[in-house]
Design brief:
Order of helices and strands: HEEEHHEEEHHHHHEEEEHHHHHH
Radius of gyration: 21 Å
Number of domains: 2
């Protein structure tokens, strides 16, 4: 029996043995040193594969009664070579591991609990073992968010942003980027440029010429956009705030966030824009979009942020709508989205994320 951290990391869910899991959970204090995992099997979880990660459920039996969970979620790097290369270049696995190690306990919005975290980035390896969220259901990004889900999420992310507003500690984490960090500048504009030929050839009939023309002009200035959004950084952001990363109860009075691979220091408008860009149907934007943006801004002020006017937030939201075009563009033209659901999700994301900039007249800040 040992409480030492395992010296290896599983590369696939099938590599998780009972002895490895015993050592991992004992080293993190989840499992007592005199209790072992006697059996473990893995099951598919949802689609099983995200853009940058592989997920599986672990079903566990122990050598004696324990409070340790009998089901948990395993997260490993993606096996898609192109996706993994981008993930490593952008420090995505480092960000999520360090979020759990250093920031999660200080962030006042409910997030999934991490049971074990380890990485060897030089080898391209990382592993997380997370609690399985059994009392809530993941949001349906394909269908899009409803009003109650949006109102709750905006109030909760305002609480997150207010807690880290202009916090000096954010500058001490050398692993936490801004949009204009060198690695972002080296990688992200090329993702946008690489996507444009596909979008110009295949998406004009779906999006319309105005949206595609704005995308082309945005691509030409993408380095400048990254610099401008980086200069506006004020708080810690989730970075991937979309329905696939949020769990809700039935009436959207409770929620929990997952997936912290994209955390960064940014303008709070980045998270708000990303939620709308990824998860809000155009008709909801037309009927309730501005009201919901004011709800968020009012909540931020009520939480004590006094130096952030509506005019500043709105102009940063417009700018982030331009920046945000790169995420859906990458899903239809660059990354392997896995199964058929992933491909349908990419299509819906394009229809939301590339029509939103024209809806908010983002060209005026280009």
């Amino acid at each position: 029996m040992s409480t030492q951290r395992p010296t290896t990391r599983p590369l696939t869910p099938n590599d998780v043995s009972a002895s490895w899991l015993s050592a991992a959970l004992q080293s993190s204090g989840v499992l007592a040193a005199d209790t072992d995992v006697v059996s473990v099997r893995n099951e598919s979880l949802g689609g099983g594969t995200g853009v940058f990660g592989v997920l599986a459920r672990l079903v566990v039996q122990y050598s004696k009664p324990t409070s340790a969970p009998t089901q948990m979620v395993l997260k490993l790097p993606t096996t898609a070579p192109e996706n993994k290369a981008v993930a490593l270049a952008l420090g995505i696995y480092v960000r999520e591991t360090n979020f759990f190690r250093e920031l999660a306990a200080r962030t006042p919005t409910a997030s999934v609990h991490c049971l074990y975290a380890d990485m060897d980035i030089a080898a391209g390896e990382f592993v997380l073992i997370l609690e399985e969220i059994a009392h809530l259901e993941v949001g349906d990004q394909l269908s899009g968010a409803n009003i109650a889900q949006l109102e709750l999420t905006l109030r909760q992310i305002a609480k997150w942003h207010a807690a880290w507003w202009l916090h000096p500690d954010l500058d001490t984490y050398d692993w936490l980027p801004t949009n204009d960090s060198p690695v972002q500048m080296a990688v992200v504009p090329d993702i946008m440029r690489g996507a444009m030929p596909v979008i110009e050839n295949e998406w004009v009939s779906k999006l319309g010429q105005e949206a595609v023309s704005l995308g082309r002009d945005t691509t030409d200035k993408f380095e400048e956009i990254l610099q401008r959004t980086g200069a506006a950084a004020k708080t810690l952001c989730h970075g991937d705030l979309r329905l696939e990363n949020i769990f809700f109860n039935d009436d959207a009075t409770d929620m929990m966030m997952i997936d912290f691979q994209m955390v960064l220091k940014a303008t709070p408008a980045q998270d708000v824009q990303y939620l709308f860009n990824s998860s809000v149907e155009p008709e909801i934007w037309r009927s309730d979009g501005m009201r919901l943006l004011h709800l968020y801004h009012d909540e931020l002020l009520a939480l004590g942020v006094s130096d952030y006017t509506w005019a500043t937030f709105w102009s940063e939201f417009q700018l982030q709508c331009l920046w945000g075009m790169v995420a859906p563009a990458s899903t239809v033209a660059g990354f392997d989205m896995g199964d058929e659901k992933g491909k349908k999700l990419a299509e819906r994301w394009m229809m939301r994320g590339w029509l939103l900039p024209t809806a908010v007249n983002a060209r005026e800040v280009l």
